[in-house]
Amino acid sequence: MFDTALLTLTWRVTRRRLVASPLTLAAGLAFPAFVVWIGLRDSYETAAKFFLFFFPHVFLIAAQDMVRTDIDGGALENVLFLGGRFRRYLWAKNFVLAGAGGAYALLLFALFSAWGLAAGEFRPVYAAQFGMGLLAGFYYIGLAGTLSYFLRAGSNTLVLLLAQSAALVALLFSVTSRTGFLDYAASGRFPGLGSKLLFGGLVAILPNLAVSGRLSAFGAEVLVGLGLSLFVQNRLARALELGK
């Protein structure tokens, strides 16, 4: 069971860091503004595709530097974390960030849905895709949190963004082939086990792809990845010893 007092403390510390992060604040304000701009300039459907694909990155940005600064900065040596409570604090961060990011995303989706309903363009499938996007966001927290045990500052988030950029460049090069990944993704059909495994590797670093209805089967991979990352984090936290 969760230590309620520790969970409250974790929320207070995490909230202050989120508010104090220029990148998190800028992303949180710019993202909905850009979605609205796309909807007004193009169409609600285009805005919906953009929103549903990219909102999981809100969780990735919020998860920057989850662990390493607390360890190296000596914050965990506070009397509040005696008796190994610092391990439960690091573990609780996953759920606090998931709750904060989920509340923010849910608010945006509610407003976006209201806009669509008023315009008569909202589609029920968007709700299912939003749920898949939340799963992708939680996966980002688990994966970024695991990386944060080894990488300083916001390097955990940066590493994932660079890996995604490299993967997208590879995708663009595949457009020139007759059977590139973009063709497979568009149809949701993969010709063999090799292509499925290769695309599964792409989903591992860019889980947003599972938001697409044709690729929702890869949501099982994202769920397994989330469970695995949380398991690894739990083991890392238990093995963690602070320097005297």
Please give a structural write-up.
The chain is mostly helical and 244 residues long. It is 73% helix and 0% strand. The protein contains eleven helices and no strands. It has helices spanning 4-20, 22-41, 44-54, 57-62, 68-72, 85-119, 125-147, 155-174, 181-187, 193-205, 219-239. Helix 2 (22-41) runs antiparallel to helix 3 (44-54) and helix 7 (125-147) packs parallel to helix 11 (219-239). The longest helix has 35 residues, at 85-119. The relative contact order is 0.13.
Task: Summarize the helices and strands and which ones pair or pack.
Layout: H1 4-20, H2 22-41, H3 44-54, H4 57-62, H5 68-72, H6 85-119, H7 125-147, H8 155-174, H9 181-187, H10 193-205, H11 219-239
Helix pairs in contact: 1-6, 2-3, 3-7, 6-7, 6-11, 7-11
Number of strands: 0
Distance between the termini: 29 Å
As a percent range, the share of helical residues equals over 70%
Number of helices: 11
Shape: globular
* Beta-strand share of residues: under 5%
SS class: mainly alpha
- Uncertain parts: none
Rg, Cα atoms, Å? 19 Å
Oligomer: single chain
Overall pLDDT: 84
What does the largest sheet look like?
none
